[in-house]
Structures are given as structure tokens and as C-alpha cells.
Amino acid sequence: MKTINLIKVFIASPGDIAAKRNEVEETIYRWNIENTYNTKVILMPIRWETNAVPTYINNSSEQSVINKQIVENSDILLAIFGHKLGSPVDNYRSGTMAEIDYFYKNSKGEVGVFFLDEPVPQVLAEEYIEVKKYRDSLEDKGFYGTYSKDNIRRFLTKKVNYLIEKVEWQQFF
């Protein structure tokens, strides 16, 4: 029997690109098929739709419950934005932005933010201005990428390798 390390990958995005979340999940499963044997790592896709458990907590928002249940316990957060930021929650312009911020502040994990590079439908032009502002605001915080399956796969491979090296390094101390 072999020991396998589990890395939980939280997939965050506004609802307008649910199909891309599905693609990311498929990319994770493909990554597992291609890499688990050699790396001894399996990636587990985490999504609020499938992993959050309905819970009533007095004076808590739905977003804070999701953050505590699944965002906080993930190892990697992979966020994708299309033409909308999403719906406002708590004190954030969107739930996805709240998840990124919560994860970054409360986790030692890795964050990747990706933006679609597709023509913007005219009906979404005003909303896309907000996405562009958010993307521009990330420039002083780090690096973001353009969404593609290959970019997601490269991101996951780099982050997994980093996490493996980090664990191996910590075992010496």
C-alpha cells in the first residue's frame, strides 16, 4: 500500500462561468491521472456547490459559513473571472473576492487568479469594467494569469511541486 498526500484545491468563481469551473475540475482529474503515481499526490477539487454543508450559525452569513467550512481548509485556491465579478456578499463586491481575501488572510496556501480572455458581450460591458478594475488592482499584489486549461495545469503542477518541496524541507527540522 502506498501513502498518498491529499491537496485540496478550492475552485472559486462567479456564477457566470460555471462551465469553466467544470473544466477546471476535469483538468484536476486529468492531472491526477497523469501525475499521482509519480508525485504521490492527489488533488481534490473543492467547490461550494458540492462541499459546503447547510449549517445554521446565528449571526453568520452564508459566505462566512462557506469560508469556515471549505475555504479555510483548502490548500490551493484557484479563482477564475469572466465578464462579471459576481454577487455582493458581506462587505465585498463579490463572493469570489471574499473567498480570495479570506483564503489569503487565513491560510498558508497558494492562490492563483485567472481571467478569461474572450470578447465581452455588449450587455456585460459595464459589469466587465468592474472585472478589469479588480484585475488591475491585483498588479501590485502579485501575478494573475489568463485562463486556459494549459495555464491551469501549469499552475497546479508548480504549486504542487512547491508544496511537496515545502513538506520535504520541513521534515528535516
Give an overview in words.
By secondary structure, the chain is α/β, with parallel strands linked by helices. The protein is 48% helix and 16% strand. The protein has 6 helices and 5 strands. It has helices spanning 18-39, 48-51, 62-71, 95-106, 125-137, 149-170, and strands spanning 5-12, 41-46, 76-81, 110-115, 145-146. A 5-stranded parallel sheet has the order 2-1-3-4-5, sandwiched between helices. It is globular. The two termini are 27 Å apart. The relative contact order is 0.17.
Low-confidence stretches: none
Shape: globular
Radius of gyration: 17 Å
How many β-strand runs? 5
Structural class, judged by helices and strands?
Answer: alpha/beta
End-to-end distance, in Å?
27 Å
Report the sheet with the most strands, covering strand number, pairing sense and barrel closure: 5 strands, parallel
- How many DSSP helices? 6
- The helix content, as a percent range, equals 40-55%
